[in-house]
Amino acid sequence: MKLSEATWTEVREADVDAALLPVGSTEQHGPHAPLGTDAMTAEAVAQAAAKRWATADTEATDDGEGTDDAVGSAVAGDLLVAPPVHVGVAEEHRAFDGTLWVSPDTFRAYVRETVESLAHHGIDRIVLVNGHGGNLEALAEVARRVSRDDASDAYAVAFTWFEAVGEHAGRMGHGGPLETAMLRHVAPDLVREERIESARDGGSARWGEWIRGVNLAHDSDEFTDNGVVGDPAEGTAALGEELLDRASEALCDVARAVVERDR
Amino acid sequence: MKLSEATWTEVREADVDAALLPVGSTEQHGPHAPLGTDAMTAEAVAQAAAKRWATADTEATDDGEGTDDAVGSAVAGDLLVAPPVHVGVAEEHRAFDGTLWVSPDTFRAYVRETVESLAHHGIDRIVLVNGHGGNLEALAEVARRVSRDDASDAYAVAFTWFEAVGEHAGRMGHGGPLETAMLRHVAPDLVREERIESARDGGSARWGEWIRGVNLAHDSDEFTDNGVVGDPAEGTAALGEELLDRASEALCDVARAVVERDR
Amino acid sequence: MKLSEATWTEVREADVDAALLPVGSTEQHGPHAPLGTDAMTAEAVAQAAAKRWATADTEATDDGEGTDDAVGSAVAGDLLVAPPVHVGVAEEHRAFDGTLWVSPDTFRAYVRETVESLAHHGIDRIVLVNGHGGNLEALAEVARRVSRDDASDAYAVAFTWFEAVGEHAGRMGHGGPLETAMLRHVAPDLVREERIESARDGGSARWGEWIRGVNLAHDSDEFTDNGVVGDPAEGTAALGEELLDRASEALCDVARAVVERDR
Amino acid sequence: MKLSEATWTEVREADVDAALLPVGSTEQHGPHAPLGTDAMTAEAVAQAAAKRWATADTEATDDGEGTDDAVGSAVAGDLLVAPPVHVGVAEEHRAFDGTLWVSPDTFRAYVRETVESLAHHGIDRIVLVNGHGGNLEALAEVARRVSRDDASDAYAVAFTWFEAVGEHAGRMGHGGPLETAMLRHVAPDLVREERIESARDGGSARWGEWIRGVNLAHDSDEFTDNGVVGDPAEGTAALGEELLDRASEALCDVARAVVERDR
Amino acid sequence: MKLSEATWTEVREADVDAALLPVGSTEQHGPHAPLGTDAMTAEAVAQAAAKRWATADTEATDDGEGTDDAVGSAVAGDLLVAPPVHVGVAEEHRAFDGTLWVSPDTFRAYVRETVESLAHHGIDRIVLVNGHGGNLEALAEVARRVSRDDASDAYAVAFTWFEAVGEHAGRMGHGGPLETAMLRHVAPDLVREERIESARDGGSARWGEWIRGVNLAHDSDEFTDNGVVGDPAEGTAALGEELLDRASEALCDVARAVVERDR
Amino acid sequence: MKLSEATWTEVREADVDAALLPVGSTEQHGPHAPLGTDAMTAEAVAQAAAKRWATADTEATDDGEGTDDAVGSAVAGDLLVAPPVHVGVAEEHRAFDGTLWVSPDTFRAYVRETVESLAHHGIDRIVLVNGHGGNLEALAEVARRVSRDDASDAYAVAFTWFEAVGEHAGRMGHGGPLETAMLRHVAPDLVREERIESARDGGSARWGEWIRGVNLAHDSDEFTDNGVVGDPAEGTAALGEELLDRASEALCDVARAVVERDR
């Protein structure tokens, strides 16, 4: 169920198991990938999970089986997908045109209060579905704060899709294999194929500039000339399809755990 | 130029005259219209204005004429459309399921810092394109604060599309003639036609509960049972087309004034 | 009952129906009118309303009649007039000497906490009696926030006197007909009669610089050389008397509605 | 020069040496003295100092003598008296009806920003003229912060009138000898003479409940039943006249030091 | 009981009467005394009081006598000494190298939240044991706020050791007799004896630059060249021993009052 | 150079290459280890690094050799060790007695302003030496913010000692092998040897409760009964010595990189 497209009466009548809040960023992703990559991928994963959840649910209802592995075994309703947060914590890319950002303080408040408004309606199991590394710390803090608040029953966790794709997780980069693959699968028109090569050549192999476990670089232009980290050419559409499948499956697992958990 | 779909290199190479930041809300719009109405309509107006601007610009470049009335006469570049803000100041609808909101403080900070990040890249002429009445005061405050800040050259104003549609402005309501018309034109599948009648019957004729110029009602459920104000049936797709045309034309006029103004 | 002049024991013994908090501004009002105009007029309206309330109340008590139109029909006690807030949201006049202001954030906090301290004593029906256009948005926000706070029973609304004077409301201006009239009635010594003519000649006809419903001017010196908007000469003392009468009557109506309303 | 009564053109033309900002409180002062005592006395002291300053100034101009002891010796202009702050830090009196307060955070911001708006106009020598003990710490903090701010030339200090009355300072109390005396001199109608005796009898001899230099009582009702500390009967109008004389003379000395000091 | 050295299981099993939170500052103390003087002395006083408390307690338990003057008469447990706050409100010493400080806002929040975490565990009687004059106002504010908070049972007061040493209090200074004496007793190695003379000669006799009860100097370098106020040579180790004895005794008295008081 | 023990004159005369700010936490570390573990270990690592730095420096000065591996090759001065921050972000341990914490907002402000006061004196290269996992995110945010601030030249990074001990890093736990080892080396008296066994038996093997890369547990008592994670018995004093050696060496490397880096 997509919140933006539903009416309030439909939300009231719906059986919402949990809400997914896609959180992205509008920031440089190299010369070949769009600034909106993080919101697009986060939303794609959330939508795919909601669809998977609904299907599993129907099946579970149909045959009453598969209680161990089916998503729907313990849940009867829908995952509600809230509209995405498009601007996040991305000041590290400020050297690259078009990058938008807010301070971590403002970002935390914005996400937290949005979640609290969901909880106001009794939708108090929430997964923050994140598509940007720079948001990670802030979202984890929001999830903790919301969940510890004795004034509400809300329980939230933060999920970052590219950390939940098994062995591929290690190849993340920035505008690299994983994001390019996902885009080629969900928004192929937005990938500038003619610049893939230059994207790779002008990028760097690793995020950051490290010494003894400490990243000395606070901004991305300190270690990548064109904003790219990793080789986007490796990110095929087929890989993208696999990533979406894996990430949405993982998200359903997380959502189920969130629904079933005693806060 | 749609910021989310552009790459940072394209933004750097572009000739951006001004940025449009669509600001919506995710809030009840009656039983017939989607919760995302305000962001959808704000974004539609911004996109239409950007298209109109580009066309006028091209024409002006082609023949060098029409300096008095064409949009492009004084401008040579593009309007950049930033991704929409989906959650705004909407606590007044909290009685209706699915309505999301943040506090005015957080909303102001979020919009202001987003605008400041645009200005960081030299995109310092900004029109906040608003689709929700409840955001009005907060956006006006943000525009003033950003523009008065001596630390930047940013100049911003707030534009609310349904106040710039001539004689129709007086019929705004909520989920009423104007919004329903606009939706029927830009997102017809999202209007629940079968509930238009009940939407009208369960709504009210006027926003608020007034005495001597003071609205006694702080929340919308104090004066409308189903969230509707005004008659959605009056909002035809043809009217929607006219509204979009008028609002985008007005927005271009405002953008031009913003570009040309000494701050 | 004037709070500043009462003792705490008298407040405890009083039967307070509601409190009026006059909110002004210390800001330029042209070369002919004092910087304190907004606080003076707001306080004058509040005092006149309190007097009117007391009289009506007494009459109602005396004869038990007039339940339809008399102020006192539904109320038995007093309106408490708190001391005025002298500094408000007035940065738009910063180009003119002597204008004082605080940020909207600080202003909202100051007014809200003052109101909350009234509510602490059980005086939880409050009308913010405003004399300055620039305070409007902020006071409306405060009234909503205070009223929605589940931790208290407070209910507040914002009333702006020059919006409650019937057909005269449209002539407001700044240091123009309405304010000059009110001053000539309540503080005639403070009107510099010898500068009325130059005030008019050096002023402007309209507040702001508008295009398509958007005010491009964030500061008043962008459209008025001497700070005046409208013709002060039209503001006779007789008009002032009428304005005070109308505004205080309207304020009593609002106060009565506030007292009688289920929050 | 009283800021509220002046026009902006007069302020521009004036030769302002420094500004005085009276800061009071609206809080219980026993059964015999008004809630507005602190603002009234602070404003009276500020007005008396401004008058004394103006007189001294004129004399100094007339004869060119008395450079050592006359106020006007080093100054040529006026003291500007800003409108009073009526609500301060007074939660300690919350047990007594009608007492108003804001949090120290909000109070500091409100006073600081008011002072900064004065400084914006070049009026950057400011004395905060305080009439309430509970404001002391907060005002000292504001004065320090304003003065240390490298973004402005402002220099401010906090002056509390009852600490500048020589040997009388030790008899302050609350609603006691000093305040009652001052009121009997500047606002005799507001002293309830018939309750002076009960005020004394129901009060206490000392502010606070002390052990080893620590006041255990955070609220005044912990040590005084009717809010009074000290014997108001001792506060004659003659004493009030002396206090006003001493305090205003001291304030002129402080203002002169502030004007002459390299920040 | 020293919190840092205890395990959580020991705290759970302990009978904690009250907690002492030493609050210092890292700031210049002249050429002869260390920057950490304030934290060292505050912690020494707190430790001495905890030891005295424990001893008195034991004795009281042993003989069941002395209920009037022994510390242990009304208490059965321990004083818990929390780890010291090393950085306080000390911007006034910013001209001297190595001085650390935070804003008063941040300091108040840091101390308050630390106290609230103690109260979370039911340790809700707290004495803030202060060693720095600049912290005084902020700590008093924190103690009031914590104690007034209806959401907890916490009761806190602020104690400044050098105000609780009887007739010696008047000789405080800065890096002067009292602090030098205390250091010579508790940390003699840290006193640079060879610079005592120059410390005295380059210092000043009095803190601040006063006129009519107002300190014109916001920073200490305005009145002392080397940061010293008072004569450190007068501060013998013997005096230090006496000061520690007096201050810790006073602190026990305060702690007992705090434990026994109805909040 | 230990800041707390130095005088301001010594700091002024010193040649400070960079400052180390130890940041700990006061929180449960199982039944066998003290609440102050994190501050103790962070301070121990900082002190060891400062000593190592000084030694290397001297040697380098002596023979002018070893430019490749000696710490002192590029630096000539001292590492200044600031006093430790004892209370951090530790609400996750609130279920265990004696744990202290402040909110992340307050912690960030406190650390940031402390760092800014160092930078005020020109000590603008700072390493935050962290001993607590819960502080990590907040310190990284502070380091970024301080370093990006155009108003100062400060450059800061966050270093967490147990992440810089090579292959041992993976065994961290909580009150487990690494912390117990370090304590046995630097503060053996504070380890309750008699409870090591029960500490291990009542603890858990892993921090958190994970599903698909998401930790469902926001508080530590959700997955460990006695607060311990990992086996403390494995943490020998010999291992502690090695850890201190490795961590201080790594810290010197980081400090050197910070000193040499163009910000």
Automatic annotation (TrEMBL), chains A, B, C, D, E, F:
<dbReference type="GO" id="GO:0046872">
    <property type="term" value="F:metal ion binding"/>
</dbReference>
<keyword id="KW-0378">Hydrolase</keyword>
<protein>
    <submittedName>
        <fullName>Creatininase family protein</fullName>
    </submittedName>
</protein>
<feature type="compositionally biased region" description="Acidic residues">
    <location>
        <begin position="59"/>
        <end position="68"/>
    </location>
</feature>
<dbReference type="InterPro" id="IPR024087">
    <property type="entry name" value="Creatininase-like_sf"/>
</dbReference>
<keyword id="KW-0479">Metal-binding</keyword>
<keyword id="KW-0862">Zinc</keyword>
<dbReference type="Pfam" id="PF02633">
    <property type="entry name" value="Creatininase"/>
</dbReference>
<feature type="region of interest" description="Disordered">
    <location>
        <begin position="50"/>
        <end position="69"/>
    </location>
</feature>
<dbReference type="InterPro" id="IPR003785">
    <property type="entry name" value="Creatininase/forma_Hydrolase"/>
</dbReference>
<dbReference type="GO" id="GO:0016787">
    <property type="term" value="F:hydrolase activity"/>
</dbReference>
